[in-house]
Design goal:
GO molecular function: ATP binding; ATP hydrolysis activity
InterPro entries: AAA+_ATPase, ABC_transporter-like_ATP-bd, ABC_transporter-like_CS, P-loop_NTPase
Number of domains: 1
Radius of gyration: 19 Å
Order of helices and strands: EEEHEEHEHHHEHEHEEHHH
Pfam family, one: ABC_tran
CATH topology: Rossmann fold
Bound molecules: adenosine-5'-triphosphate
Keywords: ATP-binding, Nucleotide-binding, Transport
Strand content: 15-25%
CATH class: Alpha Beta
Protein name: ABC transporter ATP-binding protein
Largest sheet: 6 strands, mixed
Structural class: alpha/beta
Shape: globular
Distance between the termini: 55 Å
Number of strands: 10
Number of helices: 10
């Protein structure tokens, strides 16, 4: 495998949840080194796509390749692959009775045999990378929302994964904290040689740091291209999403998924 190979490749992937198809025929490639924004309205299937990238949700059809290998079916191989994927989940997921440093140390304790002094040093380096070395001994409740998010980011980076996935990293943050977090995502991506996939509906905060944008709506990828091309897209679906209009080709309650654009006669009545 050369480094020119995409770090993520999906080919004709279908993803089902609760017996219903959420995403149809998804094909995409994520080149190494990029920050890719996966955008879409609430309920469009962003988290479902993310679950396929981490192997949590097997594809109902098609092929998912991550870090140059097909998504393993066997649990042990899957766990090994997941060590190469840093995931920052919605919210912080920090353990409240552990300090910031102890939270960041968790993956290192769980997945490496490293002695404590080495783990302590690595934790300090990770906290330094997110600009928070000074709060190593603080508990999550003593941190602002933005700082807690950065600690969660440091924890996701703990095992030096080549691929970072962020699920709604800006939820609950004010505009300033959002700007800090997104600038950090970009800086860490470039300085540590990562690839980053940011799953979000925060378009305007995310596009400025993204190299590539994908928009999901009505069960499919409706746009894939540069942030500039996204802003200029004449597609009514894309425009509705960018403007946040309740009326248009994306149903207001898009939880109905792929078929939601065409309500049943009962729903329409
Ligand atoms: N475990 C599940 N079982 C059944 N249906 C599910 C499950 N998880 C998600 N869904 C459905 O799949 C669709 C897509 O949900 P998903 O969470 O992927 O969307 P999303 O774009 O991430 O939404 P949000 O931005 O609100 O987080 C929704 O219709 C949702 O109700």
């Amino acid at each position: 495998m050369t480094n020119d190979n995409p770090i993520v490749r999906l080919d004709g992937v279908r993803l089902d949840r609760g017996g219903r198809t959420v995403l149809h025929d998804i094909s995409l490639e994520v080149p190494r080194g990029q920050v890719v924004a996966v955008l879409g309205p609430s309920g469009s299937g962003k988290s479902t796509l993310l679950a396929a990238l981490t192997g949590e949700l097997p594809a109902a059809a098609g092929r998912v390749e991550v870090l140059g290998q097909a998504m393993p079916e066997r649990q042990r191989e899957l766990l090994e692959l997941r060590k190469g994927i840093g995931v920052m989940l919605q919210g912080n997921g920090l353990l409240t009775d552990l300090t910031a440093a102890e939270n960041v140390a968790l993956p290192l304790r769980a997945h490496t045999p490293l002695p404590k002094p080495v783990i302590d040093r690595l934790v300090r380096m990770k906290l330094h990378a997110v600009g928070l070395r000074a709060v190593a001994d603080a508990f999550p409740r003593e941190l602002s929302g933005g700082m807690a998010r950065r600690v969660a980011l440091a924890r996701a980076l703990a095992l030096d994964p080549p691929l970072m996935i962020y699920d709604e990293p800006l939820t609950g943050l004010d505009p300033i904290a959002s700007g800090v977090v997104m600038a950090l995502v970009r800086r860490l991506n470039d300085t540590l040689g990562l690839t980053s996939i940011v799953v979000t509906h925060h378009v305007h905060e995310t596009l400025p740091v993204a190299d590539h944008a994908i928009v999901i709506a009505n069960g499919r990828i409706v746009f894939s291209g540069s942030p500039d091309a996204l802003s200029a897209s004449p597609d009514p679906l894309v425009q509705q999403f960018l403007r946040g209009d309740p009326d248009g080709p994306i149903p207001f309650d898009s939880r109905g998924g792929f078929n939601a654009a065409a309500p049943t006669a009962e729903e329409a009545a």
